[in-house]
Amino acid sequence: MVVEDEAHLAQGLRFNLEAEGHAVEVFGTGEEALQRLQGAGEPIDVAVLDVMLPGMDGFAVVSELRKAELFVPVLMLTALHRPEDVLKGFASGADDYLPKPFDLNILLARINSLLRRRAWHGEERAANTGKSNGDSGSFEFNGRVVDFNALELRTAGGTFKLTLMEVDLLRYLIRNQGKVVSRKQILEDVWGLPESTDTRAIDNFIVRLRRYIEDQSARPRHLLTVRGVGYKFVADAES
User: Fold this and answer.
1) pTM beyond 0.90, yes or no
2) Residue 228 DSSP class
3) How many structural domains comprise the chain?
């Protein structure tokens, strides 16, 4: 899916994506795109979504998708180049972000990367669980199972769907369990952003993850804040 209100750009994207063998649907507004994604038609594999749209903007579209537990991978396009805007897109639930003007080959590479990641997560279900790091297909702690491939967190209370960005952040924290990781490290290692970027969006991600993994998100036992530094994941909360 391509969601772009500039007709010449939308048609150019359609032409080049179809030349690469993709089937493409084009929409000019966020409302139209949201209606299509929430409908009962053929599933969309990747959405290429402009931020600056008439009416509902791209940030709002992604937020509504995630609230509805629709986890189609989303690549956001925008003329907003500030790192803070990149993080706003990620905080909304986007999976990748590309500033305009962009190189077509880079766009195609990003789309293909999201398609591969979706295939890996959907098809490579590992049978083993990881007790020491997040390198296997799943990780179990305190009656909870994080399934990295299925993009799910399974608990006694139910199953929570996660976005690719949430899974990437949780995997990073689990790999570094017991260690304090700074917000700057997360920016660089998870999202590839410069350390000078405003880190408030990371805090928003942490709040969301705590809702999934903690019995009481206001009194976390697994995903801890180390004041003035960053965060630490603890699998064995009793210790």
Assistant:
1) no
2) T
3) 2
